[in-house]
């Protein structure tokens, strides 16, 4: 991102004078030109965005989404996590969580100004991913010292994200994929790959017991009606199925199986 120095007084521009696709942000009415991203910045940005967007508690996430907390301010974090909405045009306010990627050529003063504006207008956390030198993430919160975290440490955003995020998931593609897999499984109701395997084992076991009940009754010359057969085959409670299996060996009347 590049910019020229701005005077302290308010500038003449408003957010509603900019349109989607314009490569400008606004700070106190002054335009800031935003350059396109190179390979490093763009790839890391996508990895981090995927790791955050898939979190089970995230309703909406966006890349370079424009937020306007006041008429002369328009800011577009690299990644933003916010509540769902149906706005047409710029999003009012600021996101609760914003992520900025700082690579070669970054204007540090402009980045500091952007962070300050986001935090002053209600953003709870800004995560600054440093792509120059040792990989690290700076955690910025209102009225708190900057915290620096490195690979192997976890980022948390209570009330915004359900899961902690490994620092490396914001810039390492493989780490991001692992986080996305965990998150997507949780969105589908599973805690892990192991939970899916366990469910498959239990479902197979339950199906086997159910079929054994029907086979045992048939071998004893006892016939169930269609509804009873469906009840047995549809049951996923292994304990209940075992009780019915024991009963199938004793009952003389199949109608008494469920007593």
Automatic annotation (TrEMBL):
One of its Pfam families is: Uma2
Tell me the segments the record calls region Disordered.
1-53
- List the CDD domains: DUF820-like (cd06260)
Annotated keywords: Endonuclease, Hydrolase, Nuclease
Does Hydrolase count among this protein's keywords?
Answer: yes
**Residue ranges, compositional bias (Polar residues):** 1-11
Q: Is Hydrolase one of the keywords? A: yes
The protein's GO terms of the molecular function aspect are: endonuclease activity
Q: Which regions are flagged for Basic and acidic residues bias? A: 16-25
User: Gene3D superfamilies given for it?
Assistant: tt1808, chain A (3.90.1570.10)
- The Putative restriction endonuclease domain extends over 19-159
Protein's UniProt name: Uma2 family endonuclease
Source species of the chain: Thiorhodococcus mannitoliphagus
